[in-house]
Design goal:
heterodimer, A: alpha/beta, elongated, B: alpha+beta, SH3 type barrels, six-stranded antiparallel β-sheet, globular
Amino acid sequence: MSAIALAPRFTARQALVLLAGNPNSGKSTVFNALSGARTRVANYPGVTIDRRSATVALSADTSIELTDLPGTYSLAARSREEQIAVESLLGHGPRRPDVILIVADATALARALYLTIEILEIGSPVVIALNMTDEARSAGIDVDVARLEALTGACVVPTVANKGIGTNALRAAIGEALARPVAPERPEVVRPAALVTDLAELEAVILGERVMERPQDARVWAQWLLLSLEHEGDELQNIPAPIRAAVHRISERAAKSGRNLDLEIIGGRYQLVDQLMKEVCRVPQAPRRSWTDRVDAVLTHKLGGALAFALVMMIVFQALFSWSEPAISLIEDTVAWSQSWITRLMAAGPLTDLIVNGVIAGVGNVLVFVPQIALLFLFIGLLEDLGYLARAAFVIDRVMRAVGLHGRAFVPMLSGFSCAVPAVMATRTLESRTDRLLTMLVLPLTSCSARLPVYVLVTATVFAPGSRLGFLSAGAVALFAMYALSVVAALTAAAVLRRTVLKGPAPTLVLELPPYRLPVMSVLLRGVWQRVRTFLIDAGTVILALTIVMWALLSYPKDPAVTAEAEAARAAVAASGASADEREARLSAIDSHENGAQLRSSIAGRVGRVFEPVIAPLGFDWRIGIGILGAFAAREVFVGTLGVVFDISGADETNEPLREVLRRATWPNGAPLMTPLAGISLMVFFVLACQCMSTVAIVKRESGGWRWPLFMIGYMTVLAYSASLLVYQVGSRLGWGL
Amino acid sequence: MNASPTRRLLARIPVGSTAVVSRVSGARPVVRRLLEMGLVPGTPVTVHREAPLGDPVELRVRNYALSIRRADALGIEVE
């Protein structure tokens, strides 16, 4: 045991190289170019960002550990996620980096230099990959590499990462930086005297608290704290109270004397940026109109922009809804095939049942999401890398702002109409944690495709084919109303949550519109695969476990009397002289009846009965209650479960016997169960209730704990219950019950 | 505080025109982010175009394109 645990970690200590850079700087491309095929993705504990790392061979006998940090414009942190990323740079995490590699977009060098200066202040050796030098050259931008090296003390390597140019030079530069442990002279940021005094005061407190050993680290941390901490409401953790108090005191004092500390710190750095830019970078006075600008004249034009937006979103939606279908069917067929194969192979019994209806069904429940996740992330990656995703946010932000959402929340919200699981994963494209949480909490209200079978079954059951409202069929009106309700509910919930539980700082949009660029397919596909893998590992295990729990609830305890009765009936059929066809029909009726009786006596069946008084005011009896419980596995399972309850096995939403049996079903007093009003109440419940365990699992994964998914279940259940109660009770009073 | 006639706001200058940032004010997280993105006093900035619905606007600053909402551009004084 111990040999396995110790061997890989301690035989040779690999140097740690952290990769930092602005979003859209080509950082992922550099990471992929350096790391080749083997990448490990781990989680930072308790938060949602992934930590990608890889072992990179610099030469035959040296290799390093390269870790990718999230793309950022600055090191100031607003959220716990950013804090963790920054702390690993500062060496406040488990290990101090040996070298920091910065990817700088040569076409937007000034902005990249701001981050560079912040990182240079840390004091670790720095290598700068000056990326997209080809683009810069054709735009007439000229960067003096040697001068940049001399002024920053960093090693600068020109690269064109998407064409693999400069990768070897980058490896060599990292090796050189490793061999040169003493950091060279750094450029100094000029600070006002008052700020220098403030920083010295905070440094003393930091060193006194012994969270930092080296005075240089304390200086870096002092500036970071002044920029990052809020008086209240920041999400930063593990900052000793005396340090918080000191930051508070210093900023109060500065504010009183009319100083702005943020401006002093950031402005000072930008003065240095301006100075560096003057010396190393020549930008043409009258730049030629860029290709990007010409495209944007159409894609962000008043009319053209709206049309392009609608077209792109329709394609994305069509892909999720239809193009994923063959793959989903294939997965479902394979699962069904392996279930019947195992059933034939193994003796009937609890173990076979567990394998077939628990484990295989659970694996199927996980895999069935993969096509949509892969397609959505392929599209998001493609649009992001092309540069269009930022334009889409730019075009739609005005609309999203009205409900307190960010322009970037549109794609996840749209995807929610197909399936909430990939959509929740797509909230990662949002920068702020509050925006992400808000979006993922209201997303499950968008009417996903799994609700459609429920709507179809209910409308076809309760509305006679000829029933009309004006010239429209009643079913079509009901269906449209459900989609409208889901949109209104999601947007209202967003507006309400934004004003209550997720107040936080006012959400805003400060969005870079990067130049249009051709995506690198290998980077794109690797990103898709990482998302899928993360889903399979983190959410998949929870979904599998929940499926098995659901299976147990719906199958146990078995009633031996029911089994015995079914066996006797089967024996009677076998003994009878009926034709093969008739025997088959009778046997399948016996199976259906047995399944129904077992379900009715299972834990879920009993829970349904116990809860009947709770759901009866909504117009649902205990049998519908069992269906709702079954729907927690996935909403469309409602149809099949309801079928089993009514002794019809294997029903889908177009099953006419099931509709017929539902139409004839009554309450014990003989009143009809599925009235149009009860049907509407049931559909409203399905629009609003959080019934999908896979959604719960993915929200748990993406929010980093159980707190938010539990909140989501709570608020959606209250919402669904109240709305259905309102519909059924008001409707009954008004005499719409029949 | 009413905007005095001498104070020009970035949100109010016509599309296509260029001005120099003189002061950034507003909610701290927004101001801090705008400063970090390079909109510090003394920086020339161009209002390049507006979104189809009139908001947000696209700025050109430090040789890249940045989009911000008009409400936030109201906090940016220019000269």
